[in-house]
Amino acid sequence: MSDNPTTSGAAVTCVIAEDEALLRQALIDRLGQAWPQLRIVAECEDGAGALEALAEHQPEVAFLDIRMPGLNGLEVAAAAAQASPRTQIVFVTAYDQYAIDAFERGAIDYLLKPIAPERLAATVQRLQARTGHPDAAALANLLERLGTALPRAGGPEPLTWITASAGRETRLILVDDVAYFRADNKYTTVATAEGEALLRTPIRELLTVLDTGTFKQIHRSTIVNLKAIAGVVRDDSGRGTVRLKSRPETLAVSAPFMALFRHM
Predict the structure, then answer these.
(1) What is the mean pLDDT of residues 259-264?
(2) What percent of the chain clears pLDDT 70, i.e. is strictly above it?
(3) Does residue 189 have a pLDDT over 90?
């Protein structure tokens, strides 16, 4: 008898990450028809949530939208190689032909939006037939080819200036001068070498307008400027601590996010 849950008839666990609610629900509905044994253990609307869900649930399968706020699907997949090494990754993409060719050459599963039922059925069949861990070499090769191009493709220009409040004063802050952003209830704390200010934009919205090559999410509530980092220390539990060049405090890095530093 096969010990692979995807072929033995046992329930298969799955994480779905898609930032558009209607598309996420459409994928869930189609999967319910194509793969009744699939049990969705987490539905995520951003990359940070997806990475944390992968680390927590260790699912057999994950469907990752490539374009998500904060960590994109490629970054989540790269970190998942450590956070959840048994997970088979399927990318969901509306990408151009260049990216599709890269998927085909790398033999990595992908679904093109809008998702066609016959394509999803074929993907499900391939997933059910697999045993063992994913092909780490093929995934790494794909990430290398697509990773540098993804942040530049489409979308708005990265934010350059922000307006934040410090008491009664309104400050105009150059984004490059920000050491980190941290969620503060409905607001966001902006930390620079000169001090702190409050921004009315929530963290999740900031993730869509920051330069993803410079700013990285290291915790659900924290985005750090890579140029502001003096060092990173990992403890025995796998969690990390970031030391900053211009500020005395340290920043916590949750364990799943530590894997991201290997790819920076």
Answers:
(1) 68
(2) 86
(3) yes
Task: Report how far residue 4's alpha carbon sits from residue 8's, in angstroms, rounded to the nearest whole number.
Answer: 6
Contact between 164 and 197 (Cβ < 8 Å): yes
Cβ atoms of residues 93 and 111 within 8 Å: yes
3-state helix, strand, coil in the chain (%, to 5): 35, 30, 35
Longest dimension (CA), the chain: 70
pLDDT of 153: 45
pLDDT category at 263 given cuts 50, 70, 90 is low
Amino acid identity, residue 216? K
The answer on pLDDT for 1 being more than 50 is no
Sign of CA dihedral 213, 234, 134, 22: negative
The encoded tokens of residue 254 equal 């949750």
What is the value of pTM for the model shown? 0.81
CATH class of domain segment(s) 5-152? alpha beta
- Any idea what the Cα angle at residue 66 is, between residues 64 and 71, rounded to 5°? 90
To which H or E segment does residue 94 belong? Answer: none
Q: Which two tokens stand for residue 259?
A: 């894997």
- Kindly tell me the sign of the dihedral angle through the C-alpha atoms of 42, 48, 51, 57: negative
User: What HEC string does 68-82 produce?
Assistant: CCCCCHHHHHHHHHH
Which residue, among 70, 112, 116, 68, has the nearest Cα to 90 in the 3D structure? Answer: 112
Q: What CATH superfamily is the domain 161-263?
A: LytTr DNA-binding domain (2.40.50.1020)
Map out the domains of the chain as residue ranges. Answer: 5-152, 161-263
201 in Cβ contact with 186 (< 8 Å):
no
**Cα–Cα distance, 74 to 103 (Å, whole number):** 12
